[in-house]
Amino acid sequence: MLEESEINAVYLKLEDKFKLNLKSRMKGTGLFFEKFLSVTDIITNKNYFALILNSKILFFDDLLHLNTKLERIIKSEIREINEQVESLQNHRATDLIIDKAAIHYELDELGDREDKLYKLLEQLKKNIGKTGK
After folding, report:
1. What are 38's strand-pairing partners?
2. Which H or E element spans position 132?
3. Could you tell me if 28 and 13 are in contact, meaning their C-beta atoms sit under 8 angstroms apart?
4. Taking the alpha carbons of 121, 4, 15, 41 in that order, is the dihedral positive or negative?
5. Cβ(14)–Cβ(51) under 8 Å?
6. Residue 48 in contact with residue 59, Cβ under 8 Å?
7. CA 98 to CA 45: how far, in whole Å?
8. How far is C-alpha 35 from the chain's CA centre?
């Protein structure tokens, strides 16, 4: 059974292989690394990697491609958070009976997660700049 944590054996193996240097920014992002695979295309005999992250599969062959795919996933997660915030705000405005405390708590949680994702995205872009790619 895989740990329910952003930093797990899958992330650590990915970190070891590609030196992502994102570990300090991962906690609280809601990004869960499920599987890290080495894949060979039987037809072309080309080797590449597959990463399953939040039930999405990323295929890549080097650090630059991995960073690009991670950036897309992070931006997608931020968009999903914004949709959830908008939905909660609509409920707060239209529902006859609302639990203000629960909505406030959920909005705070989403805001915290969004902030952590933005910081992770910022670190990812810095890392890309350092590698010169």
Report:
1. 49
2. none
3. no
4. negative
5. yes
6. yes
7. 58
8. 14
CA–CA dist 120, 117 (Å, integer): 5
- Predicted confidence pLDDT, tens digits, the chain (133 residues): 344 677 899 999 999 999 888 988 999 999 999 999 999 999 999 999 999 999 999 999 999 999 999 999 999 999 999 999 999 888 777 766 677 888 889 999 999 999 999 999 999 988 877 665 4
Interatomic CA distance for residues 57 and 43, integer angstroms: 20
Distance between CA 101 and CA 122 in Å, rounded?
A: 31
pTM over 0.70: yes
C-beta separation of 35 from 54 below 8 A = no
Q: How many CB atoms lie within 10 A of CB 51?
A: 21
| Token pair in block for residue 58 | 């990323």
